[in-house]
């Protein structure tokens, strides 16, 4: 794999990335940087990881030809079914990889941040499986909004700690997790849920999610006989399912990479999470990237109907893919995502997560022909969003 | 000779005080500074509030949130500081997170520091290598010192490199913690202070994190050129009924004068 779109040894993707962290985190990050590739490339690690992905997660996840959706949009739509994974989303691919790494490094305590609770549940699941202590930081506001996931984490044995600073959502939970790590540098491993944070996290998480595109490549060839789809599409908040969807296609420039951001009530509404559309360059959670900030460099609270996409930054690799025009960035409003959630459900009998519903907006915004093939990553299932769907679709 | 160097040459047991600009009220920044100098503080670190202060504990987080609500920003701060050199003589340091400075513009920031008479800056999340590659020349050009943190986990090689490439003082974080977290000195900390002292650094060193009263100040002064008090002072600012009177008695009490 070429280095054109991946991190260099300093963790830079073009002008983005790096490790902008206080000295208190430096030894932890340096240590992780030193060992992560050596450990995850060992035969022992790979064997254990792949076995878990197969028997515990249920991989490979199917690549499904969505016939009725294809007819409606007069093209060929394939869905990569990450929603069928154990715990209901792609997040588990990453948490299992990181927890095996943590174990190998002799860590005894796991911390994580979570927004809607999907990464928190995936982390609590991995900790239950491995018998490790688990502390999940979650914004106090999100704890109120996502009661079922909080209960799942607790049932799995995790301690859920309310982040009460700032606006009490994902970015504040991330700050609290980083503070915990500063105070517990010896025994604790921080499992970050997306391709964000200081190097080596963006690269490490992308590697663990790259199984998505590895499978797409194999399955697409098996199904169609052709080597490459014309488009691969994913929604992007921090960007972990998009990174996984793009990874093995980065150097195949004939495959168009499409990322769909959440624009909330509209890019210019002030209530949005469209980081690429709005953001300028700054530093958030240890990484230089595009982010939403005001004129004084204060980070702006994002908004989206989908809790998994309302992050004010974006993974540094995605910022670089934007810079180099390697990826196409689109955005979808709350309403567009809701419309597609219902349409996909009615045409295919699959209820998508609100996050994943954003990705389908590409079907409207790309100029697709009947010969094109489009792979859309269905990053998660919609069970967790039934509250929103009940309200918005009058299902009560 | 710059003000930082002169101070460390002339005085021992330096007391450095941290507080957040624009807290408790927007226009308290400079009056607090004047009271601190009157009362006997030797250096002041003025915090630039940031929305996401990931190295700070609850006390300083809260002060930053309040300051932002009060309307504090780098533009407002430099405006407040424009005549500060007619009011105080001690070395002034600005301390903040890199994003606010990055957004303001590195060169503009360094130039403004020079214009108003700020002697040094502490940007805890500016990586040292990044500083050497892309920031140092600009700050040097405007005569502004960059001060870096070291911790008990920082390798000796890195401490030496930081010492070699900077010219203010070394900020020794006393333990693995966010600001305001721990109190008292352990065996491990004393060993760490010893280890650093044996390196014979060219720069003076101040110890910070977990220092908030006369006892801890005196104790840390045994192992370094002085001590930094942050959260304990910010807490006082948040609770004080007679702001300037209480600042004075706090400084006198910590210094034991």
UniProtKB/TrEMBL annotation, chain A:
The modification N6-(pyridoxal phosphate)lysine is found at residue 91. Its cofactor is pyridoxal 5'-phosphate. Residues 58-380 form the Tryptophan synthase beta chain-like PALP domain. The keyword Lipoprotein does not apply. Its EC number is 4.2.1.20. GO terms for molecular function: tryptophan synthase activity. Pathway: Amino-acid biosynthesis; L-tryptophan biosynthesis; L-tryptophan from chorismate: step 5/5. The keyword Nucleus does not apply. It catalyses: (1S,2R)-1-C-(indol-3-yl)glycerol 3-phosphate + L-serine = D-glyceraldehyde 3-phosphate + L-tryptophan + H2O. It comes from the Bacteria. Keywords: Amino-acid biosynthesis, Aromatic amino acid biosynthesis, Lyase, Pyridoxal phosphate, Tryptophan biosynthesis. GO terms for cellular component: cytoplasm. HAMAP family: Trp_synth_beta. Tetramer of two alpha and two beta chains. Belongs to the TrpB family. NCBIfam families: trpB. The beta subunit is responsible for the synthesis of L-tryptophan from indole and L-serine. This is Tryptophan synthase beta chain. The lineage of its organism: Bacteria, Pseudomonadati, Bacteroidota, Bacteroidia, Marinilabiliales.
TrEMBL record, chain B:
The active site is at residues 45, 56. GO terms for cellular component: cytosol. Its EC number is 4.2.1.20. CDD domains: Tryptophan_synthase_alpha. GO terms for molecular function: tryptophan synthase activity. Pfam families: Trp_syntA. It is an enzyme of class 4 (lyase). Keywords: Amino-acid biosynthesis, Aromatic amino acid biosynthesis, Lyase, Tryptophan biosynthesis. NCBIfam families: trpA (TIGR00262). Tetramer of two alpha and two beta chains. Belongs to the TrpA family. The alpha subunit is responsible for the aldol cleavage of indoleglycerol phosphate to indole and glyceraldehyde 3-phosphate. This is Tryptophan synthase alpha chain. The lineage of its organism: Bacteria, Pseudomonadati, Bacteroidota, Bacteroidia, Marinilabiliales.
